[in-house]
From TrEMBL:
The lineage of its organism: Eukaryota, Metazoa, Ecdysozoa, Nematoda, Chromadorea. It comes from the Eukaryota. This is Transposase. PANTHER family: TRANSPOSABLE ELEMENT TC1 TRANSPOSASE (PTHR23022:SF134), TRANSPOSABLE ELEMENT-RELATED (PTHR23022). GO terms for molecular function: nucleic acid binding. InterPro entries: RNaseH_sf, Transposase_5. It comes from Pristionchus mayeri.
Length: 227
């Protein structure tokens, strides 16, 4: 028998008019050895309730509930809402100047939890171990790449790319964010060496980077810089 069920029975027996001694005997019958003082504590146990958070920085106390509701609805609409944006919107909408920490406390008070964004696919990690092994090897040797220039390219696309969301506990569906199939994007190429960074090359989406294009990039950005 669970702790809750037998203690519920104790409350029921007391409400039925049984004395403490009779309740102790009833507990013996169900395998629970208790004293009269324990029965008393069960019957008179009080539960402390935490006072709701009330920001003292809100001057007009009539605005507390509307501001709480506004923050909650904002995260229901956009789970990646920036705190700095909320601070500005609350000042414009309600005339109250709240700090970022106060907004975060209000968010927490309304059971909005921090969770990582999911995009519905896994990231391929096959290339990470070889690269890490290469770096560890040369760090161990004390290799100094004074005559090398390391180049790489990266795609940069538009849209919200924040790592976290704030949702109600268990609401995993709102952690999954959509991605556009063909978002506006640019490819940025650059290099870095002991001497510093090369100029950047920026290419629009759809440009084919074949041998000829890569040679143009090298001549335009790297060779002039290396001279």
């Amino acid at each position: 028998m669970s702790e809750r069920s037998w203690k519920d029975k104790v409350v029921g027996w007391r409400e039925a008019g049984l004395s403490y001694g009779q309740i102790v005997e009833k507990c013996y019958e169900i395998g629970k050895k208790v004293s009269k003082s324990q029965v008393y504590r069960i019957l008179h146990k009080t539960f402390d309730t935490r006072r709701p958070y009330t920001p003292s920085t809100i001057v007009d106390k009539r605005m507390i509930k509307p501001i709480f509701d506004y923050i909650f609805e904002s995260y229901m609409e956009d789970s990646q809402k920036k705190v700095s944006d909320l601070v500005k919107e609350i000042r414009d909408e309600f005339g109250e100047s709240l700090s970022r920490s106060v907004v975060k406390k209000i968010r927490k008070e309304q059971c909005l939890e921090k969770g990582g964004v999911r995009y519905g696919h896994s990231v391929r990690l096959a290339n990470r171990p070889p690269r890490l092994s290469f770096c560890d090897h040369h760090l161990g040797l004390g290799t100094m790449f004074v005559n090398h220039c390391f180049t790489d390219e990266s795609m940069v696309q538009s849209g919200v790319r924040r790592r976290f969301v704030y949702v109600l506990k268990g609401d995993n569906s709102r952690r999954v964010k959509p991605r556009f199939k063909h978002p506006p994007s640019l490819m940025i190429w650059g290099g870095i060496s002991w001497e510093g960074a090369t100029p950047l090359v920026i290419l629009r989406r759809g440009v084919t980077v074949d041998g000829g294009m890569y040679q143009k990039m090298i001549h335009k950005a790297y060779l002039k810089w290396a001279e």
